[in-house]
Amino acid sequence: MVEQARGRRVSPEEAHAWEALVATARRTVADGLVVGTSGNVSVRVGDTVLVTPSGVPYDRLTPRDVTGVALDGGQVLGTLVPTSELPMHLAVYRTTGARAVVHTHAVHATAVSTLVRELPLIHYMAAALGGPVRVAPYATYGTEELAAHMLDALAGRSGCLLQNHGTLTYGATLDQAYDRTAQLEWMCRLWLTASGVPGLTPSLLTGEQLAEVGERLRGYGQKG
Question: Where would I find the Class II aldolase/adducin N-terminal domain in this sequence (predicted)?
Fold first, then answer.
């Protein structure tokens, strides 16, 4: 059902995208990547960015709660206040070809963000994110300063860590953005586990090894 929202009707494409966005947001909770209403999800439909609203538990969201903004941040759909992290989401859409963004407060990834400036090359799947995953310096949540730090950390990458905060990944679809978030959390957990073994130091991959994997990943998966 297409609902009326803030001056114009929600298109069928937007309604479908909102349904997928809510499902993805709920998945971040179910998979333990966020607690409560922490973290946020967005998806771009044309020049409209649908985004989770601020402070609303995901299990309470309905089709009538669709929340959308233009690329300049002006609200064009819904009456609920968009996520406080809107500056980060919009910065990604303005500077990349992203169609979806997932931001979480995943435990292991957030822990790693407090320890290093870059996730050590513990696993070759770092290549799926474009290379070694950087940590964006800390800035207050919801600020343009944080968005700027994030963009620097994302240069040439599709995901980054946010110091003392969490993760941000993007993709061509919600599924891809989510999978990248889950992969990043897994790599962080792997590094913490390996580096925590007393008396031993985990082996790490070289840049050359990672580059070789990056080339192989270009042809990975089913064709067509």
Answer: 19-192
To 5 degrees, how large is the angle CA 159–CA 204–CA 202? 115
* Average per-residue pLDDT for the chain: 94
Three-class DSSP category at 167: strand
Is residue 122 a contact partner of residue 133, using CB atoms and an 8 Å limit? no
Q: What are phi and psi of 152, to 5 degrees?
A: -60, -45
Q: For the segment 138-156, what is each residue's pLDDT rounded down to a tens digit? A: 999 999 999 999 999 999 9
What is the value of pTM for the model shown? 0.94
Region 80-101: mean pLDDT is 97
Q: List, for residues 199-212, the tens digit of each pLDDT value.
A: 999 999 999 999 99
Q: Are 79 and 62 in contact (CB under 8 A)?
A: no
Strand partners, 159: 169
Residues 6 or more apart whose CB falls under 8 angstroms from that of 159 comprise 129, 130, 133, 167, 168, 169, 170, 180, 181, 184
Report the catalytic residues.
Answer: 85
For residues 23 and 55, the answer to whether their CB atoms sit within 8 Å is: no
Say if CB 104 and CB 97 are below 8 A apart. no
> For the chain, how many residues are written?
224
